[in-house]
Amino acid sequence: MANKLDYLTALQAAIKQTHHCDVTHCETVPVHEKVDGKTMWKGDVEVFDVSGHPEAKKCYAWSYHEEGRGPRVVAIFEKQSVNSPEMAVKCAIFFNVQPAPYPRPNQNPDV
Length: 111
Known about the structure:
- Strand 1 (22-35) and strand 2 form a beta hairpin.
- The chain is an alpha+beta fold.
- It has two helices and four strands; from the N terminus they run αββββα.
- It has one domain.
């Protein structure tokens, strides 16, 4: 994305188009997810206030580049067990929504 405002606008548009609700950006939270001291995911999670969604009041979103497909948006809506940007990242990795860009602890990197 060209700049932060363009990035946030693209995330908002993707969330609104997919989930038919309005979102307003409230903060950016850096998240560094580690397992056994090794980085599984590192990046910024954008936190949005949500209106018009039947259950959620917040949404945690970010994008990543998927080889052969371009940018992909991950949007995790707040639920009882997903109540922070950190938990949203853990949930996305666990459910394989967000592939971990770093080698998993039991894998050998090709580098």
